[in-house]
Amino acid sequence: MIQYIWEVKIMNTPFLKRKCSHCSSDRFYCSEKFRMNAQKKNIDIWLIYNCLKCGSSYNMTIFSRIKPENIDKNLFNKFSENCTKTAWDYAFSRETARKNNVELDFESVRYELEYEKVSAEDILNGDHDIIAFEIKYPFDFNLKFSSVIKKCLQLSTNKLNQLITEEAIHIPQGPLQKKHKIKNKDIVRINRARLKSMYNS
């Protein structure tokens, strides 16, 4: 077996679906900055969003009325320093959105794929029975295997459908289906013999 890497490079955090109280917009973008407010011995921490149209702000609650000593010291420092990675972690968090009664617009997430160009024809002409691809996917935004496989293997929709029918592609959940969605470090395995049978049919 030979293994390659497919990397999903995410360009932006998802918008929030929320009606702006100052204009007609219903989308907010993440500022990647936190707001912290101390009240006596407690502290509130928010992730700041801004309206796409007018720029007015919305604060999404991360912690409310919590004692600073109850927050991991390293995490607390990241809030204080406006750590971008930490902001992204919360901006992609379904749980944080649920607690704030807002919805994440995953369709607004733009991404690029970094991959070594290995086509279906290259796999056919190789000498490995199984060809594997590990997917680096640091933030989950409902991306489907079929979208990545089609792009990275330069497949037409028809060819991809044939591969699915022939069960030539396996993922952690089993044989690939179009509904299957990616998790970080998932492995895609392609059976060369079944691929060859499909192309020769």
Jot down its keywords.
single chain, 201 residues, alpha+beta, 2 domains, six-stranded mixed beta sheet, five-stranded antiparallel beta sheet, 11 strands, elongated
Structure description:
This protein has two domains: 2-10 and 110-200, no CATH class; 19-101, no CATH class. The two termini are 25 Å apart. It has a six-stranded mixed beta sheet with strand order 7-1-8-11-9-10. It has helices spanning 73-80, 84-91, 94-99, 120-125, 145-152, 157-165, 192-200; strands at residues 2-10, 15-17, 27-39, 42-51, 57-66, 103-105, 111-115, 130-136, 169-171, 174-175, 187-191. The chain is built from seven helices and eleven strands. The longest helix has 9 residues, at 157-165. The chain is an alpha+beta fold and 201 residues long. The mean pLDDT is 94.
Task: Give the arrangement of secondary structure elements.
Layout: E1 2-10, E2 15-17, E3 27-39, E4 42-51, E5 57-66, H1 73-80, H2 84-91, H3 94-99, E6 103-105, E7 111-115, H4 120-125, E8 130-136, H5 145-152, H6 157-165, E9 169-171, E10 174-175, E11 187-191, H7 192-200
